Amino acid sequence: MDNLVLCPCGHSLANHDSAGCVGDRLGRCGCGFDRYGALEAAVDSARTTPVFGYTQNEGAV
User: Fold this and answer.
1) What is the DSSP letter of 43?
2) Phi, psi angle pair for 32, to nearest 5°
């Protein structure tokens, strides 16, 4: 699951530790979320971001 959930900073939960996001091979990310904060931010983002292409009447006959 650590690699499937993405923080709003674009990195997975596996990249987050108690000091924030370690980023990628190029350097540390500016994101200050620890793993728990990154998970909460990802869930919050999923709740509030609309899914593109979805319409309320999709599939209606």
Assistant:
1) H
2) -100, 5
